[in-house]
Amino acid sequence: MALESSVLDTVDRRILGILRTDARISWRDLGDRVHLSPTSAADRVRRMEREGVIEGYGVRVDPAALGRTVRAVVDASLGAGDQIDDFEARLAQRDEVTFAAYVTGTADYSIIVECEGAEGLDAFVRWLRADAGVARTETKLLLRVVTG
Predict the structure, then answer these.
(1) What is the pLDDT of residues 22-53, one digit of tens each?
(2) 23: domain range?
(3) Which residue, 21, 63, 71, 102, has most beta carbons within 10 Å?
(4) Structure pTM?
(5) Cross-sheet strand order for the sheet of 70-78
(6) 78 & 118 share domain
(7) Residue 134 is inside which H or E element, if any?
(8) Based on the domain organization, do 27 and 68 belong to the same domain?
(9) Tens of pLDDT, residues 74-128
């Protein structure tokens, strides 16, 4: 379980900000940036990992390198009585899906996908409607990612 935010001090928060943009930074460079020794910086990171503040590390991959040239947000609404757990499990199996969230508003889910061209996006939306039992979709192409 993660610590309550009040337990994190200013230095911890600065460390987290740095790790969000460069998780491969050396302990020495991290320590220099937050004015700690490399050992103290490493100890703080390990403590935050142990306590669940840091949940893991990842790799960002250029979607175009995988042939995925179209990125979109697909808002999906399930039909009445549809099984949420079943839908979420099926969604998790799709390679195109990079992010999905159960949301408030007119749609039930917002799904970010990376597809191989317009044909790949069309196939994904068709799958949602036919095989995943989605009653309604609204799709927005991502023209440019500003942050994240």
Answers:
(1) 999 999 999 999 999 999 999 999 999 999 99
(2) 5-50
(3) 71
(4) 0.75
(5) 97-102, 109-115, 70-78, 134-141
(6) yes
(7) strand 134-141
(8) no
(9) 999 998 776 888 899 999 999 999 999 999 999 999 999 999 999 999 999 999 9
The answer on 42 and 103 residing in a single domain is no
11 and 72 in one domain?
A: no
Phi, psi of 72 (to 5 degrees): -150, 160
Specify the number of domains making up the chain. 2
List, in sequence order, every residue forming a beta bridge with 110; answer none if it has no partner: 75, 101
Tokens of 65: 């390198």
Q: Six-digit token pair at 45? A: 């990171």
What's the rounded Cα separation, in Å, for the pair 136 and 122?
14
- Provide mean pLDDT across the span 7-33: 95
* CA distances for 119 relative to 69, 70, 75, 101, 123, angstroms: 11, 9, 18, 24, 6
DSSP string, 65-115: GGT--EEEEEEEEEPTT--HHHHHHHHHT-TTEEEEEE-SSS-SEEEEEEE
What's 32's domain CATH number?
A: 1.10.10.10
Please tell me which residue, 59 or 113, carries the higher pLDDT value.
113
Given a cut of 90, whether residue 133 has pLDDT beyond it is: no
